[in-house]
Amino acid sequence: MEPELGQAVREAAARSGVSVSRWLSRAAADHLRNEVLGAALDAWEAEAGPFTDDELDAAARVLGVNGSGQQRAS
């Protein structure tokens, strides 16, 4: 692990009040969940076609994120 990344992880773990091991475990779980969600969205789009900008904006509003209508990275 690059020293700068290691330091950032240690700082993030400290801010979260958890051990580095626990923080890395949570990060790995988040990453795996995102991969599964990405695969599900890809399958949906393969069957139903790409999401429209309106659909993406509506989802962004529900999630409370930027609704710029930009396609997600696959």
Task: Describe what is shown at a glance.
The chain has 74 residues and is mainly alpha-helical. The chain has helices at residues 3-16, 20-48, 53-63.
Largest sheet: none
Cα shape:
elongated
What is the CA-atom radius of gyration, in angstroms? 17 Å
Order of helices and strands: HHH
> In the residues, how many domains can be counted?
1
* Category by helix and strand content: mainly alpha
Written account of the structure:
This protein is mainly alpha-helical and 74 residues long. The chain has one domain. 73% of the residues lie in helices and 0% in strands. It is built from three helices and no strands. Helix 1 crosses helix 2.
Q: What's the structural blueprint in terms of helices and strands?
A:
Blueprint (H helix, E strand, L loop, with lengths): L2 H14 L3 H29 L4 H11 L11
Helix pairs in contact: 1-2
Note the main attributes of this structure.
3 helices; single chain; about 0% strand; about 70 residues; mainly alpha; about 75% helix
